[in-house]
Amino acid sequence: MTDTEAFVALNMIPRLGPVRLRTLLSALGSPQAVLSASADTLRDIDGIPKDAARSIASWQSSVHLEEELRLAEKSHASILTQNDPRYPSRLKEIYDPPIVLYLLGELLPRDDHAIAVVGTRKPTTYAQDCTKKLSYQLAYSGLTITSGLAHGVDTLAHQSALAAKGRTLAVIGSGLANIYPARNLPLAEKIADGNGAVLSEFPMATPPDRQTFPIRNRVVTGLSFGTLVIEAGTRSGSLISAAQTAEQGRSLYAIPGRIDNPNAFGSNRLLQNGAKLVTSSEDILEDLGLLFPVKPELPPPPSPADLSETESLVFLALGSDELLFDQIIVKTGLPSHKVSSTLLALEMRGLVKNLPGSRF
Questions:
Q1: Could you tell me the pTM of the whole model?
Q2: What average pLDDT does range 183-193 have in this prediction?
Q3: Read out DSSP for 117-151?
Q4: Kind and range of the H or E element at 267?
Q5: Fewer CB in a 10 Å sphere around the end CB: N or C, the chain?
Q6: How big is the chain by its Cα radius of gyration, in Å?
Q7: Residue 293: pLDDT above 60?
Q8: What is the pLDDT of residues 66-75, one digit of tens each?
Q9: How far apart are CA 227 and CA 47, in angstroms?
Q10: Are 118 and 252 in contact, with CB atoms under 8 Å apart?
C-alpha cells in the first residue's frame, strides 16, 4: 500500500481527523503503521479515545479503499496528501489541514496569491454589485478568488473571476462525485477546465450535510491570505469563516452594509470588531505589498475599444438607453446564453449596469 492509498483510507475512517492523525503519525511514524496498529496500541497514545482506536483498528470493515480509488480515477480527480509538492503550502500552515485533498482541475503557484470571498446565499442587489465588481477587479489584478460554490455570493465570486479571465478555487462541502449544489455543476466544470480547481477533503461520494459546510470553510480561508466578507447576517456561515480567518492569522476584510439590513448585521459587526473596511479593490491591493514580493495592481479600466466583436455588438445595442434582456436579444440577434455571458463580462468591466427587473 502506498502512502497516498494509506492516507485515503485514514481519511475515510470515522472519528479520525487531521489533528488526531498528526498525533498518531508522531507516535507510529507512517500511515501504514497507523492502519496496522492494534486497538490496544492506539489507545495507549495520548489524545486517542477508545472509540477512535476501535474505528482505526477495524478500518477494513468500514473503508472500501479500492472502490474509492476507482471512483476518483473515473472522475479524473487527483488526490493530494501533505507529502505531495502540489499540496497548497498556505493550507499546510493551518492548525488542522486536510489529510487529503481531492482535486478537479489544477493548482498553480500563482494560487498562493488567493483571497477568499464569502457572504450570504441571498445577497441584496447592493451585495451582488459589490461581489461582482470586487471579485472581477481582484481576479483581473492577478489574485485567485477562493469561495465555496454555494448559491449567492459564492457563485457570483466564481463567475466574476471567470469573466475577468482569472483563476478561482471552489471548495465544496461534499465529495467531488456529488457536487453540491447540483445547479452549479456547469460552473464547477468550467472552473476545473483550465480556470482553477474544485477541491474537497471529503471522500468522493460524500453527500452534503450541516456538518460538512463549516468543516470546509476552514479550507476556503486556509487557501487564502485573507477573507473578504461581502454581506452576512448574525447567523451566517460566513461568520464562521471570519472566525477561522482570525484563528489562522490571516487578514479579514468586510464590506459595510445598510444598518437596517439584517443580512448585513454580522458583517457590520466584523467591522466594529476590527475587520478592515473595504470600499474598493484598492483597499485590499494596497495591503499586498507587505505580503508579496511583487504587489498586484489593478490594471487601467477597459474602454469600449478593447471589446471583442460580440461584446461590441451588445454594447452598441444598449447605447445610452435602458433595455430589457429580451430587447437586447432582439436587437443583437444573439442567443440568450451568449447575451447573458456577454452582459456579465461587460458588467464586470464597468461598462454595463445590471438594474432590477432584468434591465441593463
A1: 0.81
A2: 96
A3: EE--SS--HHHHHHHHHHHHHHHHTTPEEEE---T
A4: helix 265-272
A5: N
A6: 22
A7: no
A8: 999 999 999 9
A9: 32
A10: no
